[in-house]
Write a structure and sequence with these properties.
Helix 2 crosses helix 3. Helices cover 49% and strands 21% of the residues. The chain has 13 helices and eleven strands. The protein is elongated. By secondary structure, the chain is of the alpha+beta class. Strands 6, 7, 8, 9 and 10 form a five-stranded antiparallel β-sheet that branches.
């Protein structure tokens, strides 16, 4: 085993200093020479068949040592943190102090400890009120209108027909503020349903009575609370060309309509819609209860100092999550930030309190699992991995990733967290 010295540093960091003797490095050097032999053409030898001395003559001993270094550092570091029970977070900072053929190898690894829980909250004294969920008839009516809208036929209007509030129009749009085009305010084919609320009051009224081929120019005030600060409360000029006009023919909400959806009658359809809405609301209420519960546990728990590195990583994770969500909606992330009049650094500052809370919640859940000896059965873990892998049965690379040690550890954490949440719900949710 390499010689290792451990030094505790400020802000929950620890520095490990390693000395690997020349004898201890020999197996790593031999492995490196074999790898190089497979990757380098050496006259007189098939790939991977040249011995250590031949490879050393060909590429030099220093090249072999440099190739072996990654394995030496990784295995030495992992062995040390396991032997000394150092719970680390993040990637260690490696500094090689001495690397020369025939000599001891010296390097340091500085890493951040996972913050410890000083005093876990007494969950028996915490309480979160369970949310009562109910569905109103008006909510069912709204959902049915949404279904009706999806089944609505669109019939192209004739050239002589004018737009009404029951129609759909497709327009070319150009918006200007002080004669300057508004960013994102141009569209060659912008669809508008005149029977729905439009985000600019007064716009629909301007279009009623227009026919295909008509062009209109008008000015409307944007709402004071508009998401784009540069437009909020300002008078914006619209240049509109009506390209297509469609009459909307929605189906009647009757038993015949219900039958087209596989329902016996409208009563059965309403019941199904109600159950779907109820299930959706119950899931939302459960998520809200659990968020309040976990944050309450975190706030009542005492922790070691949270390292800046951990906070910064969590903030970056939140930015990445936001970016993926924005792009999933077909939006460009930089444009989204511009509309909010925000920069990434400003967003990161705003995310800091939430990032701290997310870290504390994760630490508190780990502490609960440890205190209550909550673990995941290997059989259950295997079954969950098999279930996930089944979704990628024709994608070998994805399946290999699912069965990797890293993903297994990730899934184990997810399943353990689910069990912790259920344990806490049984105590805290009243």
């Amino acid at each position: 085993m390499p010689n290792v010295e451990i030094e505790e540093l400020e802000k929950n960091q620890v520095k490990l200093s390693f000395v690997v003797s020349a004898d201890e490095a020999v197996p790593y050097l031999q492995e490196a020479a074999e790898r190089i032999s497979k990757q380098t053409a050496i006259p007189g030898f098939r790939a991977g068949k040249a011995g250590y001395d031949v490879v050393k003559q060909r590429v030099g001993e220093m090249k072999i040592l440099e190739d072996a270094l990654e394995s030496i550092v990784r295995k030495s570091f992992v062995s040390a943190v396991l032997e000394h029970d150092i719970d680390t977070v993040g990637t260690p900072a490696i500094d090689v102090a001495k690397l020369a053929p025939g000599n001891d190898i010296e390097f340091t690894a500085t890493v951040t400890r996972m913050p410890k829980t000083k005093e876990l909250a007494d969950v028996s004294k915490l309480s979160v009120k369970a949310q009562k969920v109910e569905i109103k008839d008006s909510e069912i009516d709204t959902a049915l209108r949404d279904v009706q809208r999806m089944q609505t036929k669109e019939v192209r209007a004739t050239a002589e027909e004018a737009a009404t509030l029951n129609d759909k129009i497709v327009v070319s749009m150009n918006m200007k503020l002080d004669n300057v085009p508004v960013e994102g305010g141009q569209s060659p084919n912008h669809a508008i349903y005149l029977n729905e609320d439009y985000y600019i009051p007064g716009f629909k009224d301007q279009m009623v009575g227009a026919k295909e081929g008509d062009t209109k120019t008008f000015t409307l005030p944007f709402p004071e609370n508009h998401v784009q600060d540069m437009l909020a409360g300002k008078d914006v000029e619209f240049e509109i060309g009506l390209k297509e006009l469609f009459h909307l023919q929605p189906p009647e909400l009757d038993d015949e309509f219900a039958a087209t959806l596989g329902m016996k009658d409208m009563s059965a359809l309403r019941d199904t819609v109600k159950q779907n809405l109820l299930s959706e609301k119950e899931q939302g209420a459960r998520a809200s209860e659990e968020r309040e519960m976990l944050e309450m546990v975190a706030k009542k728990t005492q922790f070691d100092e949270i390292p800046d590195m951990l906070v910064n990583e969590e903030i970056q994770k939140m930015v990445d999550e936001l970016k993926r969500g924005v792009e999933a909606q077909g939006l460009e992330f930089n444009t989204y930030l511009q509309n909010l009049n925000k920069t990434v650094p400003q967003m990161k500052i705003e995310f800091t309190p939430q990032a701290l809370m997310r870290i504390k919640v994760a630490l508190a859940m780990r502490a609960v699992a440890k205190q209550e000896k909550i673990s995941v059965d290997e059989t259950a873990l295997d079954a969950e991995l098999d279930r996930v892998a089944e979704q990628y049965k024709d994608q070998k690379e994805a399946k290999d990733q699912i069965y990797s040690p890293q993903y297994r550890e990730y899934m184990e954490q997810i399943l353990r967290n689910r069990k912790v949440i259920e344990y806490l719900r049984g105590i805290i949710i009243k």
